[in-house]
Amino acid sequence: MARVTVWNEFLHEKRNDEVKAIYPDGIHAVIAGFLRGAGHEVGTATLEMPEHGLTAEVLEQTDVLIWWGHMAHDKVDDAVVNRVRDRVLEGMGLIVLHSGHASKIFQALMGTDTWNLRWYHSDTYERVWVVDKSHRIAQGLDDCFVIPQDEVYGEHFGIPEPEHLVFITWFPGGEVFRSGCCFHRGAGKIFYFQPGHETFPIYHQSEVQTVIKNAVDWARPASINKVTYTTGNVTLMEEDA
Ligand code: ZN
Predict the structure, then answer these.
(1) 153 phi and psi, to 5 degrees?
(2) By the 8 A CB rule, do 185 and 203 touch?
(3) Quick one: which of 41, 101, 142, 176 is 20 to 30 A from 60 by CA?
(4) What is this structure's pTM?
(5) Which mean pLDDT values do the consecutive 10-residue runs of the chain (241 residues) have?
(6) Distance 77 CA to ligand 1 centre (A)
(7) What gap in Å lies between CA 5 and CA 113, rounded to an integer?
């Protein structure tokens, strides 16, 4: 069991009937639902809550934070971004979904122009290929799975070189995309997963739920992981040094 907080911007669902029909209680409610079904203790937080629902207390009680945002990345307060960043460095796992690639927090942790990718509206299918069968996040999946409809994300994607690549997505337009990428920052693990445009029922799909459940298991901190930083004036460990 991990303590998971699902953060969702929660604006498309209020403003767009097409999205509301798919996610009447918000994308976060669907993700929280299947994670609770997997035995996790799950809370949710949204942009319009005070401090976006990510108070120091909430983050202190969070093993893995899931992030979905799109139209209001710039509305996320820098103080909250810094607080999330600090918790990741301490060991909290972070799972960034779909358009969260352009979020402040993902850019802060990657240090590159992660918003930069080939992109266009589409309702075509995509094929998500497993490129590391041994990885924890790929367990329970076939060689590939199809998502019936999604928009297109293609290379080049402005991320630093992933430490581990779990998935590559192929699109009928010829694009390919590094769609499942693992990173470490400080003591924290970060997973980026591309599928999830809000006008399609992608988070209702079983393979996608398997990936996110696996990612929570992978990203949750080990029990001994708290990092303390010491700068200068340390006591030498060896007397003769
Ligand atoms: Zn999208």
Answers:
(1) -115, 130
(2) no
(3) 101
(4) 0.94
(5) 97 96 98 98 98 98 98 98 97 97 98 97 96 98 98 98 98 98 96 98 98 98 68 79 58
(6) 22
(7) 26
